[in-house]
Amino acid sequence: MRNSLKAFLIPVGLAASLVGASFSCTAADLPAVQHTGNNTFITGGIGLDESTAIKGAMKDWPLSVLFVQKDGAQAEYVANVRVKVSDHKGHTVIATESQGPYMLANVQPGAYRVEATLDNKTLQQDVEIKQGKPVKLTFLWPAQAGAVQ
User: Fold this and answer.
1) How remote is the C-alpha of 30 from its chain's centroid?
2) How far is CA 134 from each of CA 57, 99, 126, 137, rounded to the nearest angstrom?
3) How far, in Å, CA of 58 to CA of 96, rounded?
4) Fewer CB atoms inside 10 Å of the end CB: C or N, the chain?
5) What's the domain range around 53?
């Protein structure tokens, strides 16, 4: 699976998040901030330090997104997801490809549609961003056809 991060299965990630608070992570552990117009975002989460830093930073970003795909009975984090965030008028405010299973976006309060595409299968969610109230979205793709159940 070219988009899978098999080393970072959800159960392992959940266990790591339970002990993540004991690790000392800094902004240096976060991926580089990218800019699109007035909006900024980061994508990543590969490796324990980076994923722990991203989880710790979620509270400071208005929008947090997680990308996951079913793989039989388990779910796996995925990367290389094409992401488009559009405002209520349909204007694209962010268009990128994720470099890991997480994306954090700093967008202004308002209504947005988030579209995420993995292996030509697009999922979408509408979200309302309010000042001081971070929102977390999870995109979960079903197992690929022919996957062992």
Assistant:
1) 13
2) 11, 21, 14, 10
3) 19
4) C
5) 4-141
Q: Is residue 52 helix, strand or coil?
A: helix
In whole angstroms, give the CA distance from residue 25 to residue 22: 9
Q: Is residue 147 part of a domain?
A: no
The pLDDT value given to residue 26:
54
3-state secondary structure 14-44: HHHHHHHHHCCCCHHHCCCCEEECCEEEEEE
Whole-prediction pTM: 0.79
* CA distances in angstroms from 92 to 52, 87, 107, listed in the order given: 29, 7, 12
Residue 98 belongs to domain with CATH number: 2.60.40.10
**pLDDT tens for each residue of 19-72:** 333 334 456 689 999 998 889 999 999 999 999 999 999 999 999 999 999 988
Is 126 part of any domain? yes
> Which of 82, 11, 15, 16 is CA-nearest to residue 51?
16
Which structure tokens are listed for 131?
A: 């000042």
Instruction: Look at residue 56 and tell me if it is in a domain.
Output: yes
Task: Tally the domains of the chain.
Answer: 1
Query: Is 54 inside any structural domain?
Result: yes
